[in-house]
Amino acid sequence: MTLKKFNFNVNHTENYSRVGVIETSRGNINTPAFMPVGTQATIKGAFIDDIIKTGSEIILSNTYHLMIRPGVDRISAAGGLHEFMNCSLPILTDSGGFQVFSLGEMCSISEEGVTFRSPVNGDRVFLDPEKSIKIQSVLGSDVAMVFDDCTPHPSTFEVAEKSMYLSARWAKRSKTAHRDNAAALFGIVQGGMFLKLRDISLAKMQEIGFDGYAIGGLSVGESKSELFDILEHVMSQLPVEQPRYLMGVGTPSDLLEAVKLGVDMFDCVLPTRNARNGYLFTSRGDLKLRNSRHKDSDQVVDETCSCYTCSNFSRSYLHHLDKCNELVGSTLNTIHNIHFYQQHMQRIREAVHHERLDDFANEFYGQQMDSRDV
Amino acid sequence: MTLKKFNFNVNHTENYSRVGVIETSRGNINTPAFMPVGTQATIKGAFIDDIIKTGSEIILSNTYHLMIRPGVDRISAAGGLHEFMNCSLPILTDSGGFQVFSLGEMCSISEEGVTFRSPVNGDRVFLDPEKSIKIQSVLGSDVAMVFDDCTPHPSTFEVAEKSMYLSARWAKRSKTAHRDNAAALFGIVQGGMFLKLRDISLAKMQEIGFDGYAIGGLSVGESKSELFDILEHVMSQLPVEQPRYLMGVGTPSDLLEAVKLGVDMFDCVLPTRNARNGYLFTSRGDLKLRNSRHKDSDQVVDETCSCYTCSNFSRSYLHHLDKCNELVGSTLNTIHNIHFYQQHMQRIREAVHHERLDDFANEFYGQQMDSRDV
Prior knowledge:
Largest sheet of chain A: 8 strands, parallel
Strand order of the largest sheet of chain A: 4-14-13-12-11-10-6-5
Number of helices of chain A: 15
Shape of chain A: globular
Oligomer: homodimer
């Protein structure tokens, strides 16, 4: 058995914001941290070596996708997920709960767990807390997540309540199944858009006790103000000693606002997915590469960016690659967007460290322009 | 005006095979050389930096595609093709003749030149020797090709004869237009499948006089034996002092056989195109990545290969990426295939240097296996 190594130290705080370091056996993670999404044992569009060069210190991968394809036995035989995909960074694995939820009517949920049909071969697949935790252990995850039921949005109070209690019972089963596994285990606070249900979930998660706490069931279609109302409410009740992870959020400004509320970890598909669609993040706002105004621009995407793409290629060239559907264009865009996110987090960390996050926020928002002008 | 720098020195010969070095102002090229194809100002699927790491010393790009998109003015404004795509390697540009030929009935050929419709926006486009040479000059090509008429296959003697004479007149006009341009200019021997016409083309090209000579109009649907019969016939009459370039050929064994006949330069889309379709070249033959036998294989693609892909990833992982249509899979396959081609050329050069090309060929063919066993 590998000895567990998961420490979180907060080095500095400014109001609710904090900078810290998560120590794992595979390396340290400076927080607040952004985790690029590597659903199918790869970051879409970029080598893990290039992702490391963007400053990423941890990535996320998905239990659900990997159990469907290539299958747990395959990854186990390869020596685990890190070995299979040749990734030296720590990996946080989602438990599969959210993906099962995304299947909608294709799955049936019982007290025991979830049954669904594999979208790859139509096989009937069963997933429950014990199996999810077991798979995450076989994958060699550095941070495992409890198996939860993600409440649909919008939901009635009754539906959200039932779902939240089920998630709480599954969280307990996940903790029991996890036992003395070397990985960290995070609980997930659910409860939909109902503060009262969020309170119950918060209490139950802390009663069980986890290495970190995630806020789930957000960014599922609610308004930004709802999202931040729930987030602020939940954050104020989470213990300060453990990392807090806001799942599936968000834009650069979302990250900034969430850090203000004390969030330490994020994941989101936006930088990678938008890259493949020619949407680039810059310090002056979103750049739509397909806009014809970039056709003749010898400018780089973002003059304040030191990424491989901005160091070597013009908007004009990236526009051309996009027009021609060249794979290299997707890769260059992906590297830029991930680098932009990591640079954004780095600037946020420095601002908190120097207790000037509000100044940073003012500068950040002051630079934002309409995409027609970026 | 940049001073012309294009020297070719043969350092060693074995029978008709030779190893040498082409010197250009952008770097030296060891011959026999394989040129990866970068049609649209990028090698499909891989960064030029990664292509350089495969041992590639020159790439090919296409006048036709670049004039259509992004347009010559754009590349000119960027400072030339090398600057636009940020490529430090020498670039050979195809003249557009072959691509126009590929359009078939969409183009009309006259003594003056070719008129066709842009496949991008439907505009009527005119291309002739003077314009092709001018474009190649603006692109900043290191090796320009004459604008030729590529004879369809099969053709009657009369059609092939007419086409060959037109190509010869266009070659003369290309030479005149090229004048004191800093780039090298290669003539192209045409004549279809008729030795008599090849002889006339050979004489006319040498009468005009070029920095190198290409063999065009092959690999257009004829049998391998026809190809090599024509090639052997042409090679025996080309001057030994200039490089000989076999256009659009071919498989690893084609390259080996063509080197035996004295060819110095090659280009082909096979390694890049096959990579994207999961066909990998190995020292033991072709590997079909999609075959289920690779699903659980922890082996690398080719144990004798030192490329990035073979140094880091298993067949199983590449099989998984291919199944999931992950871009990273195409990139890893592309890097491997180009590296394999360059390693193959390196081994061929060493064999010629040590006057053991026949031994090398025996070893090479002796290792080839059915793809079910690779």
